């Protein structure tokens, strides 16, 4: 009797308790693969899609949050769905989430980001080594070698590149003499260098993603033989201090006006603008017309770029998103490595100095900001409608010019009744500054405007 009751209870107990579900070992490999892939996809979607074109701290912050998700998924899913729990993954998930959230919350400026360059490479190497040890102890899957180990190596390589870039930038600054000087323009300082003597003073305005150093290759020395020539760096470029926030064209022109006044460089000036520098020069001329004696546009960005160049809107959209990635890539030393193999006809040592400057995160950060402000800058540049009879030469690079470029270049000559348009069919856009032949033509255009200002005679139509 008792035995029967016991048997019934035992049967009832077995019926109520469901058998444990077996956990397959193979799942941990799928979990590792899926988690890392998910983090990659989320990071790409955030930095290229949802936040594409954003400022540096947003790009880096959201990328870190995306990768934090991958490590969080690895920890959670491996604990719940495999017999190889990877609880250690909580640590990188928490650290990356904290770092990403901190960047988004505190919005560090250029100086703070440069300071972090001395910290994060060592911290990331330490984390990569620690994760390697933990993965080796806890993960028995081929994905450890195929996915995690290569990822850890990538983190170490990125850290070494970032550390090298930080050190090299400091070495460049400490070992390279600053040939010009810094001038306070109110809240930050701008670098300017003047050579030669005589008047009118020529002011060189560099293009987007460039600094003043490239003028020192061919053009500034040639012009300095006849008159005073000054090249300067906009805020955040080269030796100049970074701005507190992204600057539109009016802010750039205001800075230049203050720089010339505070540095006691007498005007009126012959303004020379290459590429987007031409737009900045036009804004300056519109706001300070009495300070302009003449102008030279070297393949200058036209005001109507978005409406008059069929391919430009789509190109701008793509570059706008890509340029937001450049500061982060520069901090990893990517551009310094690439630029070592890039050909450049500038003379030594200008070539090496120019490569060093354009490789820095600071310049690429300003490039992103100026490109983001380009639509407003071109709108502001359109305020210049009349130079009267002040001499103007428009030099256009015909080689590789996109559809609609030449007509818009020709249209700019209408700003002055004393203007000339010179098209160089065998010279491309950068060649007007970098190539010796193209730079010679650019220098001659500048000297022709200087001669016209001095003599009061119209430009020769040739």
How large is the count of helical segments?
Answer: 20
In total, how many beta strands?
8
Percent helix, as a range, is 55-70%
The whole-angstrom Rg is 29 Å
Uncertain spans, ≥5 residues at pLDDT below 50? 1-25
Describe the oligomeric state of these chains in a short phrase.
single chain
Beta strand %: 5-15%
Largest sheet: 8 strands, mixed
Strand numbers in spatial order across the main sheet:
1-2-4-3-5-6-7-8
Structural class: alpha/beta
Intertermini distance: 123 Å
Q: Which whole number gives the mean pLDDT?
A: 93
Explain this structure to me?
This protein has 462 residues and is an alpha/beta fold. Helix content is 57%, strand content 10%. The protein has 20 helices and eight strands. It has an eight-stranded mixed beta sheet, with helices on both faces. A hairpin with a 4-residue loop joins β1 and β2. α2 runs parallel beside α7. The radius of gyration is 29 Å and the shape is elongated. The termini are far apart. The N terminus is likely disordered.
């Amino acid at each position: 009797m008792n035995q029967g009751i016991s048997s019934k209870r035992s049967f009832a107990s077995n019926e109520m308790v469901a058998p444990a579900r077996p956990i397959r070992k193979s799942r941990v490999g799928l979990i590792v693969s899926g988690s890392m892939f998910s983090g990659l996809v989320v990071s790409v979607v955030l930095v290229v899609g949802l936040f594409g074109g954003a400022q540096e701290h947003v790009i880096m912050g959201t990328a870190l949050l995306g990768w934090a998700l991958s490590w969080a998924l690895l920890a959670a899913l491996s604990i719940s769905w495999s017999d190889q729990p990877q609880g250690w993954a909580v640590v990188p998930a928490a650290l990356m989430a904290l770092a990403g959230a901190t960047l988004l919350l505190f919005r560090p400026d250029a100086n703070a980001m440069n300071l972090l360059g001395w910290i994060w490479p060592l911290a990331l190497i330490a984390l990569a080594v620690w994760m390697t040890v933990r993965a080796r102890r806890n993960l028995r899957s081929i994905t450890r070698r195929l996915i995690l180990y290569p990822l850890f190596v990538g983190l170490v390589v990125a850290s070494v590149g970032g550390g090298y870039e930080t050190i090299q930038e400091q070495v460049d600054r400490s070992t390279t003499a600053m040939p010009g000087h810094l001038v306070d323009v109110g809240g930050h300082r701008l670098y300017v260098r003047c050579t030669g003597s005589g008047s009118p003073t020529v002011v060189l305005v560099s293009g987007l993603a460039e600094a003043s150093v490239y003028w020192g290759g061919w053009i500034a020395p040639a012009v300095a033989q006849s008159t005073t020539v000054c090249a300067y760096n906009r805020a955040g470029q080269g030796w100049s201090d970074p701005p507190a926030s992204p600057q539109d064209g009016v802010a750039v022109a205001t800075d230049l006006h203050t720089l010339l006044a505070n540095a006691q460089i007498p005007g009126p000036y012959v303004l020379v603008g290459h590429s987007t520098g031409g737009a900045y020069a036009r804004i300056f001329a519109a706001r300070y017309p009495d300070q302009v004696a003449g102008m030279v546009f070297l393949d200058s960005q036209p005001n109507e770029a978005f409406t008059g160049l069929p391919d430009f809107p789509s190109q701008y959209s793509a570059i706008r998103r890509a340029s937001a990635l450049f500061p982060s890539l520069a901090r990893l030393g990517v551009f310094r490595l690439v630029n070592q193999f890039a050909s450049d006809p500038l003379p030594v040592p200008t070539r090496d100095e120019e490569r060093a400057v354009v490789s820095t995160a600071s310049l690429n950060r300003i490039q992103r900001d100026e490109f983001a402000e380009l639509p407003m800058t071109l709108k502001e540049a359109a305020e210049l409608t009349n130079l009267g009879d002040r001499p103007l030469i428009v030099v256009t690079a015909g080689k590789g010019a996109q559809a609609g470029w030449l007509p818009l270049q020709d249209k700019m000559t209408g700003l002055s009744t004393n203007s000339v348009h010179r098209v160089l069919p065998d010279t491309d856009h950068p060649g007007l500054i970098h190539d010796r032949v193209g730079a010679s033509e650019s220098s001659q255009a500048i000297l022709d405007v200087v001669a016209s200002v001095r003599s009061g005679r119209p430009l020769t139509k040739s």
